[in-house]
UniProtKB/TrEMBL annotation:
Name of this protein: AAA family ATPase
AAA+ ATPase domain boundaries: 98-234
Keyword annotations of the record: ATP-binding, Nucleotide-binding
UniProt xrefs under InterPro entries: 26S_Proteasome_ATPase, AAA+_ATPase, ATPase_AAA_core, ClpA/B, P-loop_NTPase
SUPFAM superfamilies: P-loop containing nucleoside triphosphate hydrolases
Family: Belongs to the AAA ATPase family.
Amino acid sequence: MKKKNVLNLIKYYSENNDAGFRTEAYEIAKAFDKIGDYQLAEYIMALLSEANTFVPQVEESDLTYVKKSEKSTKPLPLPDAIKEDVVGIINAVGHNIGINKFLFQGPPGTGKTETAKHIARILDRELFVVDFTAIIDSKMGQTGKNISDLFYEINQLPHPEQVVILFDEIDSIALNRTDTRDIREMGRATSAVLKGLDQLNPNVLLIATTNLYSYFDKALLRRFDSSVDFSRYSREDLLEIAEIVLNYYLPKFKRLSKNVRLFRKIIGLMDPLPYPGDLKNLIKTAMAFSNPNSEFDYLRRLYQSVIGETPSDKFKTMQSQGFTVRDIEILTGVSKSQVSRDLQESK
């Protein structure tokens, strides 16, 4: 702990700057923890969690850079490895020791945004999403200023311990500062993000997502307490997720019937299997466009979407893909007897 920390603490207290006061007190607690004085560090954190300090009230209509968002109630099928990381995040936040910044990285459609929404629901916190359209500005230096204002707005939110801030696709404002295509402006923006993360109220839970992890500034990565890789799906994970999506959407279409065995055969034709977001769109679209008077028309449409063009010798091709005569009847509308005759003739 340095003299500057004590002076800042007094300064923030005299200014009724709750966010600054808490942040500085948290830094002091970290300093004591680092030198092994764990009891004093825990005592300071306990006082912070119980303190009834000044909190400036902010009306939602006054917010410029963050917007309240709905929390998710949809099924969130995740591989066990990612589930364990999510449980770890929830546990870490519950310990209330300032571990509050997390980065979700991975390809599009892997469930990063939905997971953030579910965490807000599980923790019973309000979810606010950063509005990047209000931040990015073509004027030189303005984006960096807007980012500074964004973090100020976040730190002034009432009841920070009840808030989740989602930076969805944070790469919109923070990429490698050595990017030669726009080194000065991106450098300013990224530096503003670094400063904002350093000064973030420790009671605010911040989750950022990105598809461009490899392009991130290393200094930025160090600001996050933990990073979760959302690309860890096995083929079996994706097959199970496809079935969960089927079971979720099928009851919404009263005249459609379920045939899990055939459904899994069709999905299994894809190699590699798409990530959950694309799987959901594929399955949902097949159902939405299906003939309501045909109980299995969605499976036919799904098959066509998966294989692309219909093969010229479709019965023989479908048989080689592992479909039975009954399966082929369902997918083509041709009777089993006719399918069997055509298959015999093609030998």
